Structure formats: C-alpha cells, structure tokens
Amino acid sequence: MLMMAQQERGVFGNTFHGLFQLAHGRLSAGARSALGRLGLQLEAPPQPFYPLSIWRHSLDIIVRELYPDLQRDEAYRRLGQRMVLDVSESVLGRGMLALGRALGPRRLLMRMNHNFRNADNYVQMQLTELSPTAYEVWINETLGLPSYYQGILEAALGATGVREAHVRSVRVDGGSCTYHVEWHA
Question: Model-level pTM greater than 0.70?
C-alpha cells in the first residue's frame, strides 16, 4: 500500500481518480500493464496519496497513449485541458463550472492555488496583477511539464466564459514556471 510520509511530496487519490476517469476505456493492455507495474489498478479505488514519482510516470504513460501523434508539449497541454474539462462533466464539476462562471476569471485565478492544494501537497501558485484582464501566474513546481499546467489554466479560464483567453509560458526556472495570462472581457 502507498502511504503518505510526513514530508513526502505527492498527489492525492482524487487527482488520480480524475486521471483514470479521463483514460477509462482508452488505454492499451501495454499501458495498463505499465501502470500496474507502478502499483496502480484503474478499476480499484485510488489510495489516499501517491508519491510524486508515481504521478509523473503515470502522466508519461497516459499522455503517450492518448496523444501519440502530438509533439510532447502539445500532448501535455491537451492532457491538462482534458483534466479540467472532464472534471466539469461530473455532478461536482458542473457545480464548480457554475461557480467559475459566477466568480469570473480574476476571482477564479485567485482561487486556483486552493484548487491545486486539493490535488497535491506541493504546488503553490502566486499571482501578480498586470491589469484587470492580465496576470502573471507563477507555479512553483511543474515537474518539467509547463505545458500541462498551461492547459489547466487555459481550460479553467475558458470555463468562466471569457473570450480569447491566452496563456503562455514566459519563464521556466528549474521546476517553476511563470505564465502570462490574459483575456478579453
């Protein structure tokens, strides 16, 4: 059984559940076997906590399987988008989507650090307002996958109903990444 060490960085089971739901019925026997070697069973309820290395390897397996014809960065961007969009198809997700529309993009961005903290125990996000419709968003740890988090930010902003949301990476420093985020009201 995978248990949470006191200071071990990792991802909560609800996040794995979302990833497994996204991949359900779309994985080859080889991908399922590779996930099994990591100690993951897609049909079993997720454990409460998984080490970061298991999460990272799981993402690699699933992105190769779901987006084999895309360049690596685009594949991870699409996976990040799908993680948000698929959550919005659940009952809880529909409620979150309605809340996102009610909050609007600015307040949604302000809440995203809380959302990330419900997914794992290591991601921290900081916002710097550049204008009422533009922010600099710093994420402390992207696991070397800044395009995955770009996709999450894009889909979250899109869920608020804004027009022309744009997210681009402007600086990568080790595992952290700074994004320029803007939209048209």
Answer: yes
